[in-house]
Amino acid sequence: MADNLQETYDQIPYGSEPISGTHPGHIAAIGTLLGLTPPDPSCARILELGCAHGDNILGIATMFPRSNCTGVDISPRQIERGHALATRASLSNVSLQTMSILDITPEFGTFDYIIAHGVFSWVPRQVQDKILEICASNLSSHGLCFISYNTLPGWHVRGFIREMMLFHTRTFPDPTLRAARAREVLEFMGSSLKSDTPFGALLQDELKHPRAMPDWYLAHDFMEEFNLPEYFHSFMERCGAQGLQYVGDSEVPLMFPHEFSPAVKQNITRMSTSLLAREQYTDFLRNRMFRRSILCHSDELIRSSFDSNTIRNLFVASPLAAAPAGNAEPCAFKHPNGGGLRAPNAMLAAAATHLGARWPASIHYPELAALVSASLVQVERDIVEKSLCEGVHTCFAAGLMQLSVGPSPFSTAVSEKPLASPLARAQAEEGLKVGTLQHESCSLDTSEVNILKLLDGTLSISDIAARLTKSPEEVSRTVTKFARTALLRH
């Protein structure tokens, strides 16, 4: 089994990239809002299981130079690539190791954050149990775990698509050929089924996802030997048996039934005997197919809802931008995700204005409250504080604002001799996609990559322009874009 997994990931490496939902600063903020006291991520011990070639754990190590990060993966080819990337980025606080998850014991060490993204559902039950055992045995007393996994009922339909792909490629043992052949049946089904029947409409909608994915994604996420989705309540029963409990979901808006009518919400509450039951009912209603669960030790005391008062200790960020004057937009402030604020009160509108001006950098909540108070001198400070706390809480729950336990590890100002993220510069040597210091992926063009590679803190804008035979104005515009994309260091 281990040899088969290693072979497939050596032959077709998994596309590794930073996953914002796994970021310890984000996970810790959720834990803090629920009454926990998670360790400071900036100096934490962090473990990633199934790290591929490490873009996710290397990104975390870059943002937290005082942390101690470890990534393990069964594929020597992927770890070798990760080693090369870490060396080019001069990262001394990260260790990447080729090993099976089954070989990890309590002696491997204690970690404050344990991440298992894109692993759990794609390994046999024995390895799944081992992942939960590691999360229990190797987690520090106040630490947090992140595990993502495929869920039912949503994967009933995706499972049908997987079975079609496996049937169509059953005579092609070479995994490098199977993904390309699997596209044939995806295209066949997409062109054969019409949307004028319930089944056709359902499948046409579901086919959009695999048809848009690269071959490596199809080969692993859809066509691996193991793909074991399960219901949330079943997953949590297994966690409970290991002494772990549910904290929340890294995709915060899905912790709240925003989209349901008041009557539906009342019925969910009436039928639910516990938080876990409520979560399962919402999964049924959403036909949910993927979860990003945050876990902790079962002896930790967790609040049943977010405590708005704890926001005062956190850092807030948001890309909300005011709609143009005279625009017929229904929202006064728009978010890139399509959401927005329709009619915010004066406190929230002032906060959105200040946050948008600082974006992508965060603002410590006490500073944000002071800025809002200064712009609303006619409103008493206590009223500003209460309204602002509630507003930020609501916007975080809706996915319109971000919260973190620490300040932004990047600069939004262009210095005389700009310094870019060392990891991004190392990634630019490989291609056009790099990781930002917001822990997100960013695609660049060739010209931008050439400029990024020279931002080592020793060259001015004019120096770079001369080396690349570009105008200083063009280089300045590009570097300013980098600053607004969280690619520059302080």
How would you describe this protein?
By secondary structure, the protein is of the alpha/beta class. It has 19 helices and 15 strands. The chain has a seven-stranded mixed beta sheet with strand order 3-2-1-4-5-7-6, with helices on both faces. Strands 12-8-13 form a three-stranded antiparallel beta sheet. A three-stranded antiparallel beta sheet has the order 9-10-11, covered by helices on one side. The model has no long low-confidence stretch (mean pLDDT 93).
Give a quick set of tags describing it.
490 residues, alpha/beta, Rossmann fold, seven-stranded mixed beta sheet, three-stranded antiparallel beta sheet, 15 strands, globular
The gist of it:
The protein has 19 helices and 15 strands. With 490 residues, the protein is of the alpha/beta class.
Q: Cα-atom Rg, whole angstroms?
A: 24 Å
Proportion of residues in β-strands = 5-15%
How many helices? The count is 19
Give the number of DSSP strands.
15
In whole angstroms, the N-to-C terminal distance is 46 Å
Query: The CATH topology of the largest domain, please?
Result: Rossmann fold
| Strand order in the largest sheet | 3-2-1-4-5-7-6
Main sheet record: 7 strands, mixed
How many structural domains are formed by the residues? 4
**Share of residues in helices:** 40-55%
The CATH architecture of the largest domain can be named as 3-Layer(aba) Sandwich
Q: pLDDT below 50 for ≥5 consecutive residues: which ranges?
A: none
Question: What structural category do the secondary elements indicate?
Answer: alpha/beta
The coarse silhouette is globular
Question: What would you give as the CATH superfamily of the largest domain?
Answer: Vaccinia Virus protein VP39
Highest-level CATH class of the largest domain? Alpha Beta
- Residue-averaged pLDDT: 93
